[in-house]
């Protein structure tokens, strides 16, 4: 039985706190009485009410400063640098708006670094080409696996299909990955013009560079672990919903006033996933709303 450290990063904006509470409910239901540790990293501070909520659901909390102020998304590097990672077989890092409905520890594979695919092919492959040249690395371009085409209508390359929705790293590789990733982000930021208007994606570009530096290919997780609303008609066996604030705006008619998902489907497995998600949202709403 693998022992995992399952984490998320919680920033200070109120929307992240609301997302985190639903995340906490989902994770505690999935992994209650398991060998896994569930931990939330709060950036700079955590208020007493949220701390009590975390204790109620068995979530460890750590208060940490922003790792790289120019790239808040890069706070996902923080758990990889934790001193106690050696106590685990591996580490799982998720977004706070990734709501799990089924346990995903079966997807942790020893020796493999895994992460979710980016469904929109952002940034475009030419950005990766520029950054890889900056680092003196060969261009690892292959056919893309994104479910949807990118900004230019093409599924470009596997390298620009990496997403930070879920990341799984074996413990014996975590510190190396974290240190390389941090250094890459800092270097890319110092050459910020190379990213053009795609600077928000510096973290995933930096991660792609890590994989090249380690001589590894990105080993993607199945898309049903990071299912955005747009994908729901295409994916039946869903393990996790990635419901960002922007997704809710685009699909507002799918949500009730209390944030329950009201998507209609005849698919039994998808119906079950939605029911499980709504059950946890309902429980979290007693605190959140």
As a whole number of angstroms, the C-alpha radius of gyration is: 18 Å
Total domain modules: 1
Alpha-carbon distance between the two ends: 37 Å
Assigned CATH class: Alpha Beta
Main pleated-sheet profile: 7 strands, mixed
SS elements, strand count: 9
| Element-by-element helix/strand order | EHEHEEEEHEHHEEHH
- What is the helix content? 25-40%
Overall SS class: alpha/beta
Q: Kindly report the CATH topology.
A: Spore Coat Polysaccharide Biosynthesis Protein SpsA, Chain A
CATH architecture group name:
Alpha-Beta Complex
> Which geometry do the CA atoms define?
globular
Q: What portion of residues belong to β-strands?
A: 15-25%
In short:
This protein has helices at residues 14-31, 48-56, 125-134, 171-190, 202-213, 245-250, 268-288, and strands at 4-10, 37-43, 60-64, 90-94, 98-100, 114-117, 162-170, 219-220, 240-242. With 289 residues, it is of the alpha/beta class.
Structure description:
The protein is of the alpha/beta class and 289 residues long. It has a single domain (4-225), classed as Alpha-Beta Complex (Spore Coat Polysaccharide Biosynthesis Protein SpsA, Chain A). It is built from seven helices and nine strands, in the order E-H-E-H-E-E-E-E-H-E-H-H-E-E-H-H. The chain has helices at residues 14-31, 48-56, 125-134, 171-190, 202-213, 245-250, 268-288; strands spanning 4-10, 37-43, 60-64, 90-94, 98-100, 114-117, 162-170, 219-220, 240-242. The strands form two sheets. A seven-stranded mixed β-sheet has the order 3-2-1-4-7-6-8, sandwiched between helices. A two-stranded antiparallel ribbon has the order 5-9. Helix 2 links the parallel strand 2 (37-43) and strand 3. Helix 1 crosses helix 7 (268-288). The protein is globular and about 50 Å long. The model has no long low-confidence stretch (mean pLDDT 88).
């Amino acid at each position: 039985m693998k022992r995992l450290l399952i984490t998320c990063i919680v920033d200070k904006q109120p929307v992240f706190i609301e997302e985190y509470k639903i995340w906490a409910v989902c994770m505690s239901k999935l992994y209650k009485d398991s060998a896994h540790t569930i931990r939330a990293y709060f950036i700079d501070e955590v208020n007493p009410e949220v701390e009590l909520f975390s204790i109620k659901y068995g979530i460890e909390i750590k208060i940490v400063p922003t790792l790289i102020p120019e790239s808040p998304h890069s706070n996902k590097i923080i758990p990889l640098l934790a001193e106690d990672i050696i106590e685990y077989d591996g580490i799982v890092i998720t977004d706070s708006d990734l709501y799990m409905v089924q346990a995903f520890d079966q997807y942790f594979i020893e020796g493999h670094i895994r992460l979710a695919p980016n469904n929109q092919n952002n940034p475009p492959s030419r950005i990766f080409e520029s950054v890889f040249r900056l680092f003196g690395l060969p261009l690892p371009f292959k056919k893309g696996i994104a479910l949807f085409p990118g900004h230019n209508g093409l599924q470009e390359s596997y390298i620009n299909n990496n997403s930070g929705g879920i990341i799984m790293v074996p413990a014996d590789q975590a510190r190396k990955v974290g240190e390389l990733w941090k250094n890459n982000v800092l270097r890319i930021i110092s050459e910020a013009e190379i990213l053009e208007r795609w600077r928000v994606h510096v973290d995933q570009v930096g991660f792609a560079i890590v994989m090249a530096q380690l001589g590894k290919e990105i080993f993607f997780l199945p898309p049903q672990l990071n299912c955005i609303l747009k994908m729901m008609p295409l994916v039946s066996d869903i393990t996790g919903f990635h419901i960002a604030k922007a997704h809710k705006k685009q699909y507002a008619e799918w949500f009730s006033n209390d944030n329950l998902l009201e998507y209609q489907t005849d698919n039994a497995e998808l119906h079950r996933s939605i029911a499980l998600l709504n059950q946890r949202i309902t429980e979290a709403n007693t605190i959140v709303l």
